[in-house]
Amino acid sequence: MCSSAGPHPSPYPGPRPFSAAESGRFAGRAAESAAVAESWQRNRLTLLRGAAGVGKTSLLRAGVAARIEPERFTVLEIGGVSRGPAFPAAALPEHNPFSFALLTSWDPLEAPARLVGLTIGDFLRRRERPDRHGRTRPILIAIDQAEGVFGRSRPAGEFRQELAAALHDRPGVHLLLSLRDSGDDLRAAGGLLGDMPVQEVRLGPLGRDAALDAVRTPALGWGVSFEPGAAERLVDDLRTGGSVEPVLLQVACGALWAALPDGARSVPAEQVQPYDTDRALTAFCAEMLAITAAEHDRSHGQLVTLLRSALGGAVTGAGVPESVLRALEERHLLRSRSGAGAPAYQLQSPRLAEPVAQLDPRNPAESWEDPAERLRAAREALAEGDWDFAQRNAEAALNQRHRRPDARLQAEADSFLGDIAYERGRFKEAAGHYRSAADLFETLQDTQAVGHLLVALGRMLLAQGELSKAVKELRAAAARMPSDVTVQTELGQALWQAGQPQAALAVLGGVLNISGNAPEALRTRGEILADLGDAESALRDLDRVHQIRPATRAARALALATLSRIDAAGRELDDVVADAADSGPVLLRAARVHELSGDPDAATRLASRAVEATHPRLSPDQHDQALRLLSER
User: Fold this and answer.
1) Do the beta carbons of residue 555 and residue 542 sit within 8 Å?
2) How far apart are CA 230 and CA 570, in angstroms?
3) Dist. CA 97–CA 106, nearest whole Å
4) Distance CA 214, CA 419 (A)
5) How far apart are CA 175 and CA 45, in angstroms?
6) Which of 424, 439, 441 has its CA nearest to residue 90?
7) Do domains 20-202 and 208-272 have the same CATH topology?
8) Where exactly are the structural domains of the chain?
9) What CA–CA distance (Å, rounded) separates 26 from 220?
10) Measured distance CA(340)–CA(87) in Å, rounded
């Protein structure tokens, strides 16, 4: 192959998936695209399953979506559950990270504050639309790379419950889950709808004819054809067991395209040589190893040895963390093999055997120093709960200053490190990162990003009891973003906690004039009104909030008790205190309910606990209420 630039930008995406915009170049999967589209439209739950690198994401984005009948269905964007671009975690109220990531992927242009308080069911209800006969059109939703939601963490479990409730309550919703082959994940996915039928569609490697189509079609779009025998030579060189792995085909095609001379309009058969394909695959393996080694602080030689041990069969990675093996699977070098006992891995394809054998363990590829990729890896790791990995790679992204500085990426890395520190309870460290990120975004004149970071700083100051400083930061954010409901709601909450409930109600009223259904503003105003004794107004707000937290349930119980609906208040209060045993507002409201119920001893005990509670503490007004209640005993 010639070593000159190709005739056009490459029509082959290489190891990354095809996007929706590239659907015209996506070929070889017509039958599979039609099968998945039909199943998605006909069934409540469809599982698209297949090994890593087989092309599930490409199929969804570039193959299936184009086959849906838009006049019959409401189709949302292909969703995901990993954390997206930078938005400071401390700027948002308590939320499920999986649910929030999914909603933002379904509606990436919506303000986060309008999504963070919504349940999946609420979101889907708002997307319901009538067809031409006035009937509600079915809603098609999909979650790509859904393996993460079947973990054992509490957020993952709560997300599954929320998703199952949405599917149960909205029978017109059809869910498509894209999953790697895994028995446990598939059983868990099948249980989302109880006994309702589940349709599975399995995606395997490409057959020969499909692979030929996948080679020829993208090039034809650029006016380049394969001469007789050229595409066949490439495909047959990559075939193992009668099939071709899509990711390896794309890598080889990309390398072939890059070697075409300028102005070429055809690919002759003699230009397709097996040694060139081996060289392209070896370079691909070396690049993926460099990325993995940098991410996981491993040596190139260790990873080469690991891959070579897979030449003779499956490996369990003794001495290598499971996270490294998963990363090599993500990068299409290994494939997990189902079975009992410890997870076992084998080469992604036998076709990689010769390229892996050609790797030099003493001569790694150029060190991977792409800060954007390091930050992306850090975000994915944080979604999986790997704090140390996430921090190490975010710090690497921030500190790679020998390249031309990218102020936006550095700001995003600083904000992300602030998130990690915040979620670990290191508020001073988080504030330093957020402040640094705000300064960088200020130089970029990104007013919205600066405003959100000021909100994050304000929320942290609130958590530490620095009420006047918190109000100052939030007023600065509100001045920058007067129409942003997130910022204005946070300012209202700060004013409330700072002992200015009437000012808080005025700000929150302005928010609800802009966005009458903003759940966090409704929740906050309802809680304030309940504390102030305006029970009827409080219930009007709180009854419109669907995702109920312990503090909100306690406020609703207080409003009911204020209206002498004691039995209803007791039912609302059931289990709330146990769920929030160190929440000052919850304990105080429970104390006031017991006082109104005629149980002064319980009221005194709960008020005493409320004064000592720290997660969160009582506001000054609430603290005075607790002391008055205690002084009356």
Assistant:
1) yes
2) 77
3) 14
4) 42
5) 5
6) 424
7) no
8) 20-202, 208-272, 277-357
9) 12
10) 41
Q: CA angle 39-41-42, nearest 5°?
A: 65
Q: Which two structure tokens, joined as six digits, stand for 127?
A: 């997307």
Is residue 329 within 8 Å of residue 336, measured between CB atoms?
yes
Neighbours of 624 (CB within 10 A): 12
For residue 140, list its beta bridge partners. 75, 174
Judging by DSSP bridges, how do beta strands 334-337 and 344-347 pair with one another?
A: antiparallel
C-alpha pair distances (Å), 374 with each of 153, 195, 413, 417, 433: 24, 42, 10, 13, 18
The string of pLDDT tens digits covering residues 584-630 is 899 999 999 999 999 999 999 998 998 998 878 888 888 888 888 88
Instruction: Name the fold adopted by 277-357.
Output: Arc Repressor Mutant, subunit A (1.10.10)
Letter for the amino acid at 304?
Answer: V
CA distances from 614 to 149, 582, 617 (A): 31, 6, 4
**Calpha distance 433→344 (Å, rounded):** 40
Q: Which residue type sits at 458?
A: G
Residues lower than pLDDT 50 in the chain = 1-5, 340, 402
Kindly calculate the radius of gyration of the chain based on its CA atoms and give it in whole angstroms: 28
Measure the CA–CA gap between 407 and 510, rounded to whole angstroms.
35
Lookup: tokens for 41:
């439209």
* pLDDT at residue 5, rounded to an integer: 47
| Encoded tokens for 73 | 């269905």
pTM of the full predicted structure?
0.78
Q: What is the C-alpha separation between 600 and 592, in angstroms, rounded?
A: 9
DSSP 17: P
Query: What angle is formed at CA 122 by the lines to CA 119 and CA 127, rounded to 5 degrees?
Result: 130
The burial class, CB within 10 Å (0-12 / 13-18 / 19+), for 486 is: buried
- The pLDDT mean for the chain works out to 86
* Spatial separation of the C-alpha atoms in residues 384 and 391, rounded to whole Å: 13
- Residue 449, both tokens: 């990003």
Q: What is the pLDDT of residue 538?
A: 94
Report how far residue 203's alpha carbon sits from residue 58's, in angstroms, rounded to the nearest whole number.
Answer: 11
Domain 208-272 has CATH 1.20.144: no
Question: How far is residue 548's CA from residue 551's CA, in Å, rounded to a whole number?
Answer: 8
Residues in CB range of 318: below 8 A, 6 or more apart: none
Q: Can you list the alpha helix ranges (DSSP code H) found in 342-406?
A: 353-357, 371-383, 387-399
Cβ atoms of 287 and 359 within 8 Å: the answer is no
CA dist., res. 418 & res. 406, Å (int): 18
Q: How far apart are CA 627 and CA 610, in angstroms?
A: 10
Give the residue from 622, 552, 560 showing the smallest Cα distance to 597.
560
Helix (H, G, I), strand (E, B) or coil at 617: coil
CATH architecture of residue range(s) 20-202: 3-Layer(aba) Sandwich (3.40)
HSE, CB side, 13 Å, CA atoms: give it for residue 73.
21
